[in-house]
Design goal:
By secondary structure, the protein is an all-alpha fold. It has one domain (4-125, 151-171). The protein is built from ten helices and no strands. It has helices at 4-17, 22-25, 32-54, 56-62, 64-77, 92-96, 108-123, 132-137, 140-143, 165-171. α1 packs across α3, α3 packs across α5 (64-77) and α4 (56-62) packs across α5 (64-77). The relative contact order is 0.08.
Length: 176
């Protein structure tokens, strides 16, 4: 008899790898593959929806069918390392770089990186706002030179300049 932990690991691995886990799901009635298929469909559906929520621009750029295909490949090859669904999809930008069928979209990976950073900043903890009393204590000279500082802890955004950037400018009616 396998321990509960072993059974859970086997079951989880079977969901993502399309493997069989007859020993765990063997019951009268529906066969084990059909039972597992129900769970697998739910897992993939939830992860796809999580990716869609984070990467709406990517989906619009490549289309729903291509996005679904890419998402399914990502889900099957990138195990969730955290129980927090908002953390799933962090490596999607790197995954898209060189993904078959998207090689010509040189900006796709950078766009996905930007979308991930937007997602992270949205879910980042809020910082305490400046209290009015503290603002009143600032002298008049300091008010003339306000400064903003990034307290998010997020990395700075890197936007790559690709050889295709002029195409985006031309399509928007601008030329260099």
């Amino acid at each position: 008899m396998h321990s509960l932990r072993d059974q859970q690991r086997t079951f989880a691995a079977s969901l993502l790898a399309s493997a069989h886990c007859d020993a765990i799901l063997a019951r009268p009635g529906m066969d084990a593959d059909a039972r597992l298929g129900i769970y697998r469909n739910n897992v993939f559906s939830n992860y796809r929806e999580a990716l869609r929520a984070v990467y709406p621009v990517i989906e619009r750029l490549v289309g729903s069918e291509f996005f679904r295909h890419a998402a399914n490949r990502f889900i099957a090859t990138h195990e969730s390392v955290n129980g927090y669904l908002h953390r799933f999809g962090e490596g999607f930008a790197d995954f898209l770089q060189g993904f078959p069928g998207a090689e010509h979209l040189v900006f796709l990976s950078d766009t996905a990186h930007l979308e991930w950073l937007i997602h992270e900043s949205f879910h980042a903890a809020d910082h305490a706002p400046l209290a009015l009393r503290r603002l009143a204590e600032i002298g008049p000279g300091a008010v003339r030179r306000p400064a903003l500082r990034d307290a998010s802890g997020l990395p700075p955004v890197r936007i790559a300049v690709s050889g295709a950037s002029h195409l985006a400018d031309k399509s928007a009616g601008r030329t260099r």
